Amino acid sequence: KSAKTTKTAKTPTRTTTPRRTSLTTTDERKPLAMGISLIEGNTARLGDDLDALDAWAARSGAMPASYSIWSDWGGDSAEFPPQWLLRGLRDRGVRPVIFWQPVGKDWRTAPGRYAYERVVAGDWDAYLTRWATDAKAWGGRVIVRWAHEMNAPWFPWAIGKVGNTTKN
Prior knowledge:
This protein is α/β, with parallel strands linked by helices. Helices cover 24% and strands 18% of the residues. The chain has four helices and six strands. The strands form two sheets. It has a four-stranded parallel beta sheet. The protein is elongated. It starts with 19 loop residues before the first strand and ends in a 22-residue tail after the last strand.
């Protein structure tokens, strides 16, 4: 008689997720692959954003992986994010994600001001250079998400708005 072999389903080997550490310390923390957003500058006192982040982390038991910062070209948040906020995020091991939006408070009355053809023509060069210089001076890592969801017709920077096309 020949030996009977039985095929059994192979159980996949599970690997444990490596524990993340702070970007500047060796303190371990639970991995949390999500980000949160608090609008910088909309809190009562300077630093309240970080206090709110710490309170959220205390409630959830983990610090988020990223933190969204909203920056409108023609708004109060146009400049590169403040050093105190970026340092505070870095010290907590949180990556800043800057939603850099070509829009301002005047987008309804002067929508063409933020048109892509104006960017390409150099109308925004001084602003872009200043922002890039400040980013370089910061020296830390950030993720910049420029004109997010430009295919979404509800945003004023969308393709099809103010002459924006996929070619300009």
